[in-house]
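Researcher: If only I could read backbone structure tokens as easily as an amino acid sequence. Walk me, if you will, through where the backbone shape changes along the chain. I have put the entry right below:
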Amino acid sequence: MATIIEGEEEISVRDRSVIKGQKGQNIQNSIRIAVCSELRRRIIIALRKGKRTLSELRDSLGVSSTTAIHALRELEKENIIFQDESRKYGLTRIGYVIGLKLSDFVDAVEVLKKHEDFWLTHDLSGIPPHLLEKIGWLKGSILLEDTAIDIFKVHTSFINLLASSKQIRGVSSIFVPEYPSLFEKLILKKRADVELVITEEVFNKMLEVINQEVLKKAIKDENFKFKLYTVEENIKAAFTVTDYFLSLGLFHVDGSYDYNRDIISYGREAIEWGMELFEWYLKRAKPIFL
């Protein structure tokens, strides 16, 4: 029989296949234990906040001691949790990492299912893969929609939110006639800190309606905090992130922009997510000097 030499030990090819098979089964079993039971998932996520006694877990999860013990023993067997000398349960180092990924997964599913129709019917190519992986950071967001009575609800709400912002970062491939004068007021009168990344097509359209001397002043004068950038690529998103909210708009899968719906979030993680998305586009942009 063929053998593989590792140090001073001989491991047969057949034995190695058995070991690989056992490892595969162990991985599958760990996944099953951590993911396939709602109670076990909830225990792992609960223990991310710190160690808990059996009674604390039982009460917070709303289950009997017998049910909780059965789930805890299965998690202990997989080295996901442990019980210390004071009989409190906690996550092992492996369990902590599993807990992080499990929480991310649960948050992502919550975001996607809460606004399922929006995500299914819109082009997500404007969001890079590393931020799609963090889509759970938008947990707690709301979907703002125009109604038959209030057909400008999304637009009006956005302007009202923007008016109270001190720091504004935006990316867009769409042109809205009202926005140049709105940003002029925010920059020149309210002295907001503004950075915008727009397509060259939007920039050229903006030059048709804005006072170019005012634009030059806003960019060059050190008393104002305004930076403007352009990108050559066609951006498949329009979003704004400020010091206290994120507004995300996307294109339909047919290529038309959806003016009637925006994802709005006030959460810290959502704002951080929006800033990361802005920085991603900023790296692909070039500054405008007039």
